[in-house]
Amino acid sequence: MFYSVIGTQWGDEGKGKIVDWLSSLADMVVRFQGGNNAGHTLKIEDKVYKLNLLPSGIIRNKKCIIGNGVVLDPWALIDEISKLNNEGILINNQNLYIAENICLILPIHKIIDEVNEIERGNENIGTTMRGIGPAYEDKVGRRAIRLCDIQNFDLLKNKLDKLHKFHQPRLEKYNKNIDVDIVYQDILSIGKHILKFASPVWKIINEAGEKKNIILFEGAQGSLLDIDFGTYPFVTSSNTSSGQVFAGTGFGIKDNHKVFGITKAYTTRVGSGPFPTELKDDIAIYLTEKGKEFGTVTKRKRRCGWFDASLVKQSLKISGVTDIVLTKLDVLDELDIIKICTGYKINGKNYDYLPFDEKLQEHIEPIYKSLDGWKQTTFGITKWESLPENAKKYILYIEKILEKKISIISTGPERSETIDRNNILGNI
Ligand code: GDP
Ligand code: IMO
Ligand code: MG
Hints:
Elements: E1 2-7, H1 15-25, E2 28-31, E3 40-44, E4 47-51, E5 63-66, E6 71-72, H2 74-86, E7 96-99, E8 103-104, H3 107-120, H4 132-140, H5 153-172, H6 180-194, E9 198-199, H7 201-210, E10 215-218, H8 244-247, E11 257-264, E12 267-269, H9 282-290, E13 303-305, E14 307-308, H10 309-319, E15 323-327, E16 337-346, E17 349-351, H11 358-361, E18 364-372, H12 389-402, E19 406-410, E20 418-420, H13 424-427
Parallel strand pairs: 1-10, 1-11, 2-5, 2-10, 5-7, 6-8, 7-9, 11-15, 14-16, 15-19
Antiparallel strand pairs: 3-4, 12-13, 16-17, 16-18, 19-20
Bound molecules: guanosine-5'-diphosphate, 6-O-phosphoryl inosine monophosphate and magnesium ion.
Residues 7, 10-12, 37-40, 125-128, 130, 132-133, 220-222, 225, 236-237, 270-271, 296 line the site of 6-O-phosphoryl inosine monophosphate.
């Protein structure tokens, strides 16, 4: 059986908790897009782990794969590995495999990320500054350095010279000069630590799939940050929807695949861009504080707002979600009234989806259904019957709009704080 975990909003939906749960049951855990812009929190008993680039299964010593759809910052990888080593988690070429054709994030990409944001001025995206976008640009520009290039010294030097020549005129304007020879030496040095992980991972994954191993594909970010389907241009630079599982790994088995859509019981967003249900009042402050809504990677305060059912419905369809996991229900516990966005009015016309046209998005008015809050704790509840009546009504109303039953409800950061309505996780 194969499982994908996808965020259905703007990221930080709580994918880490579910990925960790599924990964304890899986044989192999695979990242297929994004890079170290991701920040996934796993709470295992008293320990909290925060992962950026490594698949979450590494904590449980599962076979972990970083697929070709990811962009790899070698220095960030080695940092993350050594931090985990210090916590007693050992990573070697028996539990970590990296696609040999993966494209690298180099120091120049972080500088370009910064310059791009400066040039965007007021319309900046608010990227994580990890060089993700510029690395993907070089990938599609057919200039990128791939992991397998590191072992071919002449080829590497040649490609590196060309890459720097391509970018240098723009960077000179900002006095950002890079010494290519130093970068070349640095890549060779880091190469000694990472080349041992390089593998034809498409082959390894397909073999595991054919042997009926349980494979978990761990998504980063969320559908609304997808380069094609998100709130472009305020998106990340990869496809975050489930279709990318295949292109980002070379896995070719299309059946027996469950897609978990991780969905927060309200909405958050880090960085700029449209957010129809955003709140700027006391409720926003309440959600930020109670939900601890601060970015894992950049520590920025996340913008908070009401649950947007039209956006989530869109994401469920695009990723072919088979099971919805509703997270952080407990964060809503103290609210008097809770609103759900069921669609939009734009220039007098009703929409049940978010149109891509940026000009239309500027005039968006959410249409809300207001429900009474439950005003009691749901933290740690594990049974549907134990939920307050108004919490049940809230969930049932969301299901009605989404036209899909919610399979799992998360009522706290820990695994035990979960309502598994159909015993899905217990049965895997
Ligand atoms: P990810 O990027 O989707 O993996 O999510 P993050 O780790 O960036 O942010 C989710 C945060 O919510 C983490 O701090 C989790 O420990 C926490 N969390 C996950 N599920 C729940 C829940 O049901 N209730 C509460 N209160 N916190 C949760
Ligand atoms: P996880 O996996 C939330 C956002 C950034 C910015 C935009 C582009 O933890 O859900 P980038 O550096 O990717 O070019 O920035 O995307 N972003 C995320 N927001 N969670 C994430 O990951 C994110 N990864 C990128 O804030 O708005
Ligand atoms: Mg996160």
